[in-house]
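Student: Please help interpret what follows.
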Amino acid sequence: MTDANPLLEGLDSDRRAPPCVLVVYGASGDLTQRKLIPALEALASDGRLSPAFAVVGVARTEMTDEEFQARVRRAVPEASGAWEAVVGNFRYVAGSYTGDETFERLGQVLTELDEQVGTSGNRVHYMATVPEVFEGVTAGLGRHGLGEPRDEGSFVRLVIEKPYGRDLAGALHLDQAIHEVFREEQIYRIDHYLGKETVQNVLALRFANAIFEPIWNRRYVDHVQITVAESLGMGHRGGFYETAGALRDIVQNHVLQVLALTLMEPPATIDAKGIRDEKVKALRAVDIPAPDDVTIDVVRGQYDSGWVEGEEVPGYREEEGVDPASRTETYVAMRMRIDNWRWAGVPFYVRTGKRLPKRVTEVAMEFQDVPHLPFGSKETRGLGPNALVLRIQPDEGISLRFGAKVPGQAFRVRSVSMDFSYGAAFLEETPDAYERLLLDAMVGDPTLFIRADEVEQAWRIVQPIQELWSDDATPLARYGAGSWGPREADRLLERDGRRWRSP
C-alpha cells in the first residue's frame, strides 16, 4: 500500500482509516488516557474508523483484555455506540518493553486479530512511552519480524512522540537504530502542534490568497514574534522537566516547526514531499548562532513565586521533584536571523515560558511603518503598526490590525482589529490535533509529521545554546510567576527599538 494523501484532501466525508491495528506502547500511561483514547473515540463516532479496527495496548502494568477495555471506557465516559463496538476489539499485552516474551505474545495477538477482526496485516505502532525505551521497542519489533509488512498489500508504520533525542548526537543515534528496522517512509515523528488547524492554516493563508503572499517578505515585514506561553507550572512533572527544560521541550520542536511554516517558500505541490522539502530549506536558512551570539541574543529564565490567575503559586525550585538549586530554564527568549533572499534583515523574536499570565500560542507579523504619515501626533496617538496575528491556541483564529478613523467630529486615527475565529466561521467542530494526526498515520499521509532531516536541522540550531548552557556559569534570569518573563527578555527587543506585544 502506498503512502500518499495530499494535505488538502482534509477530513472530508470519504476520508476513513483502512482496516488496521493500532499498537500503543505505554497504554497504561497518561498520554494514552488523556489524548489517544478520546481522539480514537471521536474518530469512531465520526465514522472514520473501519469496522476492522483494533487496538493492542502494551505496557508493564498487569491487566487482562477486559480490564484494559474497562480502563478505555472510563477514559471516555459519555462515548457513542460506535465506540462501544470498537472497544470490543481491544486487546492487551503486559510485559517488558525489551523482553522477547512481550513481542512473541504481541505477534500472536496481531495474528489473531487478522483472523478474527480482519485487520489485513496492517499495523501502526505508536510509541507513547518515555523516550528511553524507543530504541528497545524498535529492536524488539525487528527481532520478531514485526517491522515489515505481512505482504505487498499491507503496511507497517511507526509513530514516535517527542522528544526525538536529547541533542543532535542523540537524535542521530536514535535515527540509526530505528532505521535498522524501519525505512524512513514508515516513520511518522509526531508533533501535535502540526495537527492544530491554525498551524495548518498558515499554508492556506499564504498560498490560497493573493493579498498576503506578496507582502510576506522583508520589503514589508518589520519583524515577527512567536509566543508559546503557558500559565501552568510543573504539577507532577517536575522530575521530567528537570531533564528537559524549555529549550528541549518547546523551542527545538514546537517553535521551530511553526517558524518553518512561517518562513517557507511556496511548495511546488501541496503534498508531503513538497511541504516538507520547503520546511527543511527554511530551517537551513536559520542562522546557527556562535557562542558570542548566544550570550547576546538568547535569554534563559526561571520563574520565582508569584500570582497566576488570582492564585498564589510557588517558584520552580519549590515544585515537586525539582532540585532546590536547579538551573533548568522554564523560559527562553531568542532573537533569530534568517539568511535567505526573502527574510534577510528581518529579526524573528521567539519566547516560551511556564507560569506566564495566560496560555497562548501565536505568530505575530508586524509590518513596517508607512513611509509618510500625513497626520499629526495628536491625531495618531492610538495608532500602531499594521500586524497580522495567527492565534494557534486557545482561541484559534486570525487577526488583522490596521488604522481606522475614530467616530466623531475630530479626525483621530487608531488601531483596530478585524478578527476571524474558527469557532464562529465554521459550523463543524474543529478536530483535535491527535484526532487528525492519528487518522493521518492510519491512512498513510505523512504531511504533518516530521522528517529525519527536519529533526536534525532543528537540533543543529539549538546545539550551540545547549553547549553554552551546560556551563553553570551562564546567567539565569529570574522572573515572577504571572509576569511575561524576565526584564532581560524585554531588553532583547528594546535594543532594536521594539517591544513584545501583549497577546
Summary: The longest strand covers residues 221-229. The longest helix spans residues 238-263.
